[in-house]
Amino acid sequence: MRYIEPHGHMVSRTTDDYQDMVTAGCAAVCEPAFWAGFDRSTVHGFHDYFCQLTDFEPKRAARYGLPHFSWLCINPKESEDVKLAEEVIGIIPGFLQRSNVLGIGEIGLNKNSRNEMKVLEMHVDLAARHEQLILVHTPHLEDKLKGTRLILDVIRSDSRIQPERVLIDHVEEHTVRLVLDRGHWGGMTLYPVSKCSPARAVDILDVCGGDRLWMNSACDWGESVPLAIPRTALEMRRRGWTAEAVDRVIYQNPIRFLSQCPKFKLAAESA
Ligand SMILES: [Zn+2]
Fold this sequence. Notes:
This protein has 271 residues and is of the alpha/beta class. It has helices at residues 15-24, 43-62, 82-91, 114-129, 144-156, 176-181, 198-208, 228-238, 243-258, 267-270; strands spanning 3-5, 26-32, 68-72, 101-108, 133-137, 166-168, 185-189, 213-216. Residues 7, 9, 32, 34, 106, 218 line the site of zinc ion.
């Protein structure tokens, strides 16, 4: 089996997890900027975090032969402070030329607040000005449908953004069609206790087919499983998906989306 982990918060994982992922067939990992488990109080905290994502973490992954890429932003959970968000967005262009940065993410909404909306619009503008791919976080539980609609409308209202260069993550049964119908890609986040279980993800794939969808484990500091993708691949096989069709979803699809950024390369290609 081979797969891409397109959304993993590796800063919260041990090196044992890297070893397990590579052993299971992981060929690349992508890490969106997100909340660190606590609110950072200054722009300097974000500067250090972006250095960690673009310098330290790729080196840690390289010890296991695993290419590591990142996405940069101030995440919705910390974007209530619009002034801080402006400062953080101001330092991001200085990182965009780094060879392992794929785009702007994971931006989006958490509580669907007015300030979060303002910061989302600032990020979309940043991505448009620098021709970056976009990775979007959608809120969880009861706010998901409303938040997804708000996010999709912000993206559509900026005519510089091409829909196929945007991936909307954490889709579920009630949001996946909205996302695909707008021409975007959708991501299913596999969590043991919330978000999308492996069985639900395969249900969604059975209904929607495997095109323009990927799966990720998020593997953050919450209850999450770094091997969620290969385990879900086993569930797909059990439910009758061929090895080729599984490979398309867990390996070829993420490569198709991510390769829209020319910096995304697998180990063999970059060697
Ligand atoms: Zn995330």
